[in-house]
Amino acid sequence: MGELRPGETWTFLYHVVPILFSPYNPLSNDEYVIGLSRSGSRPQVLCIHGGATYQHFIELPYAPAHEDLDGDGLNELDTTFKSADYLIVTSEVLLRDADFAGVDLLLQKAATLAREKRGVLGYWYPSPYAYDSWQYAYTQIKEYITPGVPDSSSNRGYWASRLSDAFGHPDVEDAYLLILGEWEVIPSPTYNVRHLDIRWTGGGRTDTVRLSDNYFADTVGNDKVPDLIVGRIIGNTPQALMKPIEASLDVMTGHGFDRVSAVVLSGYEVGSGDSFV
């Protein structure tokens, strides 16, 4: 950013993507305000000239929960949530354990992807009432995205009820859940597949699958059949997590992927003790 001379102006444009929060760190509709922080302080611009510091407070907060620009009976906040069939879920608190500054840029990139995909972000926060709540995050998140009438006792439907009908009726429309972070951020359960009787020609059988995100995909009927499309971005650093997001954005703009190369993954070669390829 260069120097702003007397009489010159800068115009800043930005996009805003709403965030769903877990019940342990809720945000009321009235707190979704652009131009006013959650603590009530007003954003300000600081300028330094001739050794003196000047500040200007932004005076025009915008509350989408109190606006209905298209007159459809839904406020702009609910309209945005109801149009979202793409949800990016992470725990920004646990991400920040690695690299505080890098996480800010990562979340900006995630918000950009959400905007391009007509989606929103979802932030899961550990329960302050249970020291081991992180271990069971997958059960909480599963409740949030399970369709049905919202249930305050279990938090069932806490997120799904606010999002597109693709989450409310995933058997009819496609909804996409993207998990951002490895299992230390958003854990996955060990999946019991004993009922499938998976046996191998080289001997042995597979009864459990560790770190299975199919658990999140099965939101209707608990029949282990995926109802949502689920993906996960993994990486040990915010920079590594950003790479797939940037690649997706490049593809959406017509760059970065020419289908010249491909990677194919498969399961065990012969027996359950083989290395996974």
Automatic annotation (TrEMBL):
<dbReference type="InterPro" id="IPR029031">
    <property type="entry name" value="Gingipain_N_sf"/>
</dbReference>
<dbReference type="GO" id="GO:0008234">
    <property type="term" value="F:cysteine-type peptidase activity"/>
</dbReference>
<feature type="domain" description="Gingipain">
    <location>
        <begin position="130"/>
        <end position="244"/>
    </location>
</feature>
<protein>
    <recommendedName>
        <fullName>Gingipain domain-containing protein</fullName>
    </recommendedName>
</protein>
<dbReference type="InterPro" id="IPR001769">
    <property type="entry name" value="Gingipain"/>
</dbReference>
<dbReference type="Pfam" id="PF01364">
    <property type="entry name" value="Peptidase_C25"/>
</dbReference>
<dbReference type="GO" id="GO:0006508">
    <property type="term" value="P:proteolysis"/>
</dbReference>
